[in-house]
Amino acid sequence: MIPAAAPAILAERGLADRLTAIFWRRPRLLLGILLAPPLIWLGLVYLGSLAALLLQSFYSIDEFSGVVKQEFTLKTYAELFRAQNLDIIIRTLLMSAAVTLGCAIIAFPIAYYAARFAKGRWKAVFYLGVMLPLWSSYLVKVYAWKLILAKEGIITWAADALHLSMVLNAVLSIPGIGGNSLSTSWIGTFLVFVYIWLPYMILPMQAALERVPNSMLEASADLGASRSQTFRTVVFPLALPGIIAGSIFTFSLTMGDYIIPQIVGTSARFIGLAVYQLQGTAGNIPLAAAFAVVPIVIMLLYLTVAKRMGAFDAL
Amino acid sequence: MSPAAPSPAAPSPAVEFRSVSRHFGPATAPVKAVDGVDLTIAEGSFFAMLGPSGSGKTTCLRLISGFEKPTAGSIRIFGQDVSDIPPNRRNVNTVFQDYALFPHMSVRDNVAYGLMVKGVDRRTRDDRAEEMLSLVKLDGYGDRKPAQLSGGQRQRVALARALVNEPRVLLLDEPLGALDLKLREAMQDELKTLQARLGITFIFVTHDQGEALSMADSLAVFNNGRIAQIGTPAQVYARPRTRFVADFVGSSNVLPPDVTRAFGGPAAWSSLRPEALRLTAPDGVALSGTVTTHRYLGAGNRVTVATQGTEISALVPAGQPLPETGATVGIAFDPAALHVMEGEG
Amino acid sequence: MHSDRASIGLRLSATAGLLFLHLPILVVFLYAFTTEEKSYAFPPPGLTTQWFAVAWNRADIWPPLYLSLWVASVSTLLALILGTLVSAAMVQSRFFGRDQISLLILLPIALPGVITGMSLRSAFSIMDIPFSTLTIILGHATFCIVIVYNNAVARFRRLSGGILEASADLGANSFQTFRHVLLPNLGSALLAGGMLAFALSFDEVIVTTFTAGQQSTLPIWMLQELVRPRERPVTNVVAIVVFLATFFPILIAYYLTRDGAETAGSGK
Fold this sequence. Notes:
The complex is a heterotrimer of chains A (315), B (345) and C (268).
Chain A: H1 14-25, H2 27-57, E1 60-61, E2 68-69, H3 75-79, H4 83-116, H5 121-135, H6 138-149, H7 154-161, H8 165-172, H9 186-210, H10 214-222, H11 227-256, H12 260-263, H13 271-279, H14 285-308
Chain B: E1 15-24, E2 31-41, E3 46-50, H1 57-65, E4 72-77, E5 80-81, E6 92-95, H2 107-116, H3 122-135, H4 151-163, E7 169-173, H5 181-198, E8 201-206, H6 209-215, E9 218-223, E10 226-231, H7 233-238, H8 243-248, E11 253-255, H9 257-262, E12 270-272, E13 277-280, E14 287-296, E15 300-307, E16 310-317, E17 328-333, E18 339-340
Parallel strand pairs in B: 3-8, 3-9, 6-7, 7-8
Antiparallel strand pairs in B: 1-2, 1-4, 4-5, 9-10, 11-12, 12-18, 13-17, 14-15, 14-17, 15-16
Helix pairs in contact in B: 2-3, 2-4, 3-4
Chain C: H1 8-31, H2 50-57, H3 62-92, H4 98-110, H5 113-127, H6 133-158, H7 162-169, H8 174-203, H9 206-211, H10 218-227, H11 232-257
């Protein structure tokens, strides 16, 4: 059946075979060819830009002419510590922390239910139910909340209908976080942030909870632990890496966002808005760059701590 | 491509390893997966590479197919050095351990793949694929997807796919490892028949000594990247060259030098097959010991006797009287059965 | 007590959480039909479909729409090429610097958009590069690479590595293996990655505000309307268009990858 004359080695047919042989002899060559375009792109466009950002932050602006002086100085960083700029940074950090906490609280039941009780079809429903809002248009979602929170919008109408206007007004009159309407108050900003970043908290939390074996919960129950004891001593510690992983997203995203506070909330500035306005209308690119370095530094610190706590296993 | 070397008078062996090594990792502290292997596999043989996992047998197979390149030494296929030849140009095909069937193609397209990439027209290659499918007794399965087949059927598709190119050497990487016992035995017979019918060289890798002994007409036992012994199954089984081979192939008693001497041999490591031992009454024999365990094996019982500070197993055929545990028995054997080994390793 | 049924409290809060995620989007759809022009009054005093026609006839909407489509298409194409290349390299072998490269790919979406945007802005300023469609695409393609990469890597991992070797073993050269084995198996994952990259780019506003200069993509047009409303019902209609333009690619991506282990959206 097999002709004895069949050659042990087949002839090379054309360029494709020759290139195949070259790649086979030098696997690093193929690796290099594959990696070169993306690395050149990311290296030049992205790392190059980050370097430009750092460079700009060490420049300063001439106060009289408004021209960027391309000389190394720490003057621009020193400006960050002016009271008004420090306010912006602290305000941003407080909001990021509050949003992270809010997300964690709302996300937990969803993640817990999806990880432990949802089966088959419902699992898919939960997955899509989190994935669709995560991916769908950011701007449309923010816009939806402007409609909802408007003074003449749904919340006011619902409060009226339920005879709860008193409660709404009471909430809005809380000094510091209240305001004329929800859409111009801190509460509004907070709500929208929580809404927008919530899926980023649910997913890692669910991933962490899915790794808790059911047998462990049952063992805890068998040993006579109540639901709340089981939660405190078993579920929560095991979910913690997921919560930290989620908090990396919610914290970082809140810190860098400038669209939401511009559309919903008081006109007080956040880091993102400061960056945007400084580089745009004010034309102070060095200070804008220095402001943009702040979230990078904070996130680096945050990541270092999170890594120590094992958050990356849950990503 | 014309053969580089003029054809010698004697036919070239199918595969030849000349001091082949394959090292991984840094040159300063390499992991020697294959370490100075010399090997000659005759054309038309059914050759087994036997060894525990990590012994270098699979790396040797991958060196033949071209998925590994030797760090040193050279490999010849039918007399031609293949150091510079990528896998796609070696007329050698492989049945992979996990079958590696193309999940997106029908069974027919899987089998015809080798012909398609060679530019054979669709009619011809479909006909050939059907032929191959019928060779492996899968007529009528051509339209299915691999996912719709059982493990045994996938195995056959992998076989048909590898044979469609009419390779001169077929490599099989633990081909039966994923099958259950009964299917495995049936496939062993089938592979053997198929090889005899096609007349091409089969080289297969296995860690199952029973499989190697029953299927191969010669085999190499691998240990730590080196070949511990090459020979026919009967040679390797009856006369293991080293302690490792005696231990790994079959269930020999391996006797340390002092026990060998007590048994009437030289002061060297030796092996003794359980079936060569007879258990007798304790009186009138040079050796005796205490029965520690028996294990029922169907065709007989394997009785372990403690003697001379070691344990020795004897096979007592079914129907013969079986000594009780704890009884003292004599041990007799044909002195010719005591095989003195060359080395320890 | 830990049976397979969740407590009422848990079920209620999980359901409420999901509703919280979805109901607000429906509000946008409702408002697109309201007869009220000047405010966001709820409930709408009446319903009408006239705003769709009004929006259709607004000349200032079309150029941003075309620009967004163009930018998203080119960015997706670039991200597909670069993301596939890098995932093929990363899966194929272990090499020095591998972890650093995966961090580099992830960074553009791991850091807030304002940083990516401001970095690009700084670079353009230092190098005196004028704003153009190209500067928008530079930014978008950069953060889209990771989307394609994630999808492709997940699929690569799930593929039995043996099939590429099997193809070469059967005589296929690298290009035949790519065309007949790799591409068909990777195809749906790449398509899913491309869909998500398109959705992400089409919708992106933060990085774009730093790289667009005077040009408007559809999200930037929308943002301007939100900050300084001119004709609110038209904004509602555009919001629906933007939503649908991202919703369907996401849904398709989900169906393309749902039988696999890869989660289409992990790490937007």
